Amino acid sequence: MKKTLMIYYSFDGNTACAADFLSQYPDIDAERLTVEKEPPRKGIGKILLGGKSALMKDDPGLRPLEKDPADYENVILGFPVWANTYPPAIGAFLKKYPLKSKNIFIVACSGSGNAMKATDNARKATPGCMHKGAVSLTEPLKNKEAAFSKLRELAEEIEKA
Ligand SMILES: Cc1cc2nc3c(=O)[nH]c(=O)nc-3n(C[C@H](O)[C@H](O)[C@H](O)COP(=O)(O)O)c2cc1C
User: Fold this and answer.
1) Nearest residue CA, atom 3 of ligand 1?
2) How far is residue 157's CA from residue 72's CA, in Å, rounded to a whole number?
3) Dist. CA 60 → ligand 1 center (Å)
4) What are 10's strand-pairing partners?
5) pLDDT in tens, 90-133
6) Distance between Cα 89 and ligand 1 center (Å)
7) Does the beta carbon of 58 sit less than 6 angstroms from any atom of ligand 1?
8) Domains defined along the chain, listed by start
9) What backbone torsions phi and psi does residue 157 show, to the nearest 5 degrees?
10) In whole angstroms, what is the distance from residue 125 CA to residue 99 CA?
11) How far does residue 71's CA lie from ligand 1's centre (Å)?
């Protein structure tokens, strides 16, 4: 059994890129969250409806997971920032799998590079956990080296946790 599970959601592949990088480490597993309901892929509705769904904490219809977070000591939550917060898939995951007494790490991807509020909100949504390192990545698919260097540091911190 590995020690760390990265639970992540990715709409456009950026968070998935971070998860792929981290899952190269021998002690890190990763599972991508998938949901029934997502915003349109393109156009103004993508940002507007996606942002609204995050703010309203809509239920996206989380599909069952393969891995059980209870089996791991450390959980990395990976997500894109939507309307300055975490997307509905993460909210639905935390509702279904309340994480107690875990070390929580956060990987937040955004367009602006500002993931402070989203990170804060994710920490508030995981009470009773130990909140450890968080990284904010700006569009990692376009800025791979910058993202990978932050993720390497995070992986070192996770190894010591
Ligand atoms: C619905 C929606 C809302 C977004 N809201 C924000 C935001 O509030 N701030 C920001 O910096 N980027 C925002 N973005 C940009 C994404 O956070 C960014 O492109 C991220 O890298 C996407 O990660 P992904 O490819 O894993 O989905 C938003 C994107 C979408 C689709």
Assistant:
1) 82
2) 16
3) 17
4) none
5) 999 999 999 999 999 999 999 999 999 999 999 999 999 999 99
6) 14
7) no
8) 4-160 (3.40.50.360)
9) -65, -40
10) 9
11) 30
